[in-house]
Amino acid sequence: MNVPRFGLNRFDSRSVDLFAADVRRAEMLGWDAALQPDSQLRRRDTYVLLAAAARVTERITLGPLLANPVNRHPSVTASSIATIDELAPGRTLIGWGVGDTAVRLAGLRPARIKELEAGTRLMRALLDGESVEVGAERPAHLPHHRPVPIWIAAGGPRTLRMAGGVADGVFIRVGTHTANIATAVDAIRAGAADTGRDPGSVRLGAVFHTVLVDEPGRALTMAKSMAAGYYEYSPALFEPPGLKWNGPDPERLKQEHSVWPDFHHAPDLDASGRVVDFLPPAAADAFSLRGGPVEVAERLVDVLRAAPAEFDYVVLHPIPNPPTPDDPEHGYTARVAREVLPRVRRALA
After folding, report:
1. Are 211 and 288 in contact (CB under 8 A)?
2. Which residues have C-beta within 8 Å of that of residue 71, sequence separation ≥ 6?
């Protein structure tokens, strides 16, 4: 079966130079994509960082994961990524979504699906060199346009269906359970058919929260926090795997136990995981990969083999968030590249 390109979305962003060096290190270790969150109140400017990384790398794909149409107008995002593609020709992409933490921390609301769709269509036209009527005195045009692919990250059925109709690719964010992945793929393909596109032309990716923790008990606890994070934003994701939420409302739990900003991003995932200890191990395994390198690799191979479609990209989102600087030999970036990816590639090939 197809061996996907493996992406990482956490790098040393304490300075522009350190970020560029960390992306170069990831490329040398064997990672295929370096994807940077576009979160203006938590990290330095995404496109300045990506430009620096483009200057010192040769192979690795670069892009935001995720940008959104709330913090930046879509025309600004299109201009920025086209500029990065001049520095790294043919190895950029836009990871794009409604906006989550970056939007909420600024006191703003996530984009509506229609806004995300409109922004995607605008960016696609501008990046293709088209002139677009936007209600200004003259049509909008991007002089330095480049054919950068636009990937929408989505988990809800309506967003997935819309993405299938307009995006070049879709990053599925529904966890690791086959039932949820199959439901997502069906929605994407239906959306493509709705707009007269070939469903097979929409490329697929997945974002898997990866709890690389050797101690089984801690790995399970953190994975339960990941499951709670998925339920917090998309309760319907518990239905296809046949899971039930047998505890208090997540918002009540967050307030009573000071879980902030959410179960996915809590600074202490041991503590936030204990808050939802009522969740069974099956819930943890439905929404993340967990354990040491061997367990993570074997589980990832099983997930990819069971999926109803092949993925072009798999982003292994590190849990817990790696410290900065990450240990160059024993940290997440190095361990996954050395102990997980070769096993997965061999098994799939």
Report:
1. yes
2. 38, 40, 99, 102, 103, 106, 108
